[in-house]
Design a protein that fits this description.
Layout: H1 2-7, H2 14-17, E1 41-46, E2 56-58, E3 60-68, E4 74-80, H3 87-96, E5 112-113, E6 118-119, E7 124-131, E8 134-144, E9 149-160, E10 173-178, E11 181-183, E12 191-199, E13 208-212, H4 218-230, E14 253-257, E15 266-273, E16 276-281, E17 298-303
Parallel strand pairs: 1-3, 2-9, 10-12
Antiparallel strand pairs: 3-7, 4-5, 4-6, 4-8, 7-15, 8-9, 10-11, 12-15, 13-14, 13-16, 16-17
Length: 304
């Protein structure tokens, strides 16, 4: 979720977190593995200001496509607000949170976050997710790097009827999030595949997946993150032995990321996995403000 990255971790591994793409290139959705699953399609076309999001929809599992006709990358974020909280209060909280430090409103951790698709400017992005009955806020979120501005365009959608019984997606690779760890299969196949990313924890989580050099350790990734908090290193004293450089931003490659999930929520994505070493991270802050990665929510693994 770029808002969290811009506000919570603006100076923290920026090469990893801006902006969300869900794949480095937007998928050709008509021929994607997700389209082949056969779920009803909900295509939302947006120019960043207006969209054709329906105001009412039957409950069910949907293949959701964002057709981004704006000049900025865009997330289509799905929320449910706690009882008594209005969209206006949510928007005001987002506006108040502009700046380098994100202070969640009191109701933030009572919201239901249900992920959503992301798209590069002028392209499409897709995801499969469940829309259960109730009132949903659908936010068309963009971040403008030139102005350092977060742009929120919240619309509401009522999901009616009963949630139909749906089978799980056969053959999907399950990526589980909880406090404070990821659970992955022992081995991952290479090539295009469907990932089911699910939150089995109590707190809100998400996934950032980055490529790192072979041999990279979790400690090196954490050192890089800590270096952003610590600021630039002091100049070495005369005669001091130079310290060998560790992992740097130039060593890190964006691969895949998700929006936020609350407990019990899941999204299905198409991910193209290539051989290499990867770091999986959650930057979501806990109620104390500490990013989950600093509490141990990091996994470094290799795909052969």
């Amino acid at each position: 979720m770029k808002r969290l990255f811009a506000l919570v971790a603006a100076c923290l591994l920026f090469s990893l977190v801006a902006p969300a793409t869900a794949q480095e290139a937007s998928p050709e959705t008509d021929g994607s593995l997700l389209a082949a699953l056969g779920y009803p399609e909900l295509r939302v076309t947006s120019d960043g200001t207006t969209s054709d999001l329906p105001t009412e929809l039957e409950a069910g599992r949907y293949h959701i496509i964002i057709d981004n006709q704006s000049a900025l990358d865009m997330d289509l974020e799905f929320y449910q607000l706690p009882e008594g909280v209005t969209v206006e209060e949510l928007t005001a909280a987002f506006e108040e949170a502009q700046g380098p430090q994100f202070v969640p409103p009191d109701f933030f951790y009572d919201m239901v976050f249900n992920g959503g698709p992301s798209s590069l400017a002028g392209e499409t992005g897709d995801v499969v997710l469940d829309l259960t009955p109730g009132e949903w806020v659908v936010n068309h979120f963009s971040y403008d790097p030139e102005t350092d501005e977060n742009i929120d365009n919240c619309q509401t959608m009522t999901v009616i009827g009963e949630m139909p019984a749906v089978d799980d997606v056969a053959g999907a690779v399950e990526i589980v999030m909880a406090e404070m760890y990821f659970e992955l299969p022992e081995t991952l196949a290479t090539g295009p595949q469907i990932w089911k990313v699910v939150n089995n924890g109590l707190q809100v989580h998400h996934v950032i997946l980055a490529g790192v050099p072979d041999g990279t350790t979790e400690e090196q990734v954490l050192e890089l993150i800590n270096s952003e908090f610590a600021g630039p290193p002091a100049s070495p004293e005369a005669g001091a032995t130079p310290v060998e450089a560790g992992l740097s931003f130039e060593d890190v490659t964006d691969i895949f990321d998700t929006l936020l999930f609350s407990e019990g929520q899941a999204n299905w994505y198409e991910v193209d996995v290539q051989p290499g070493t990867y770091a999986m991270i959650c930057f979501m802050p806990d109620p104390s403000g500490t990013p989950h990665v600093m509490l141990g929510m990091i996994e470094v693994f290799t795909v052969e």
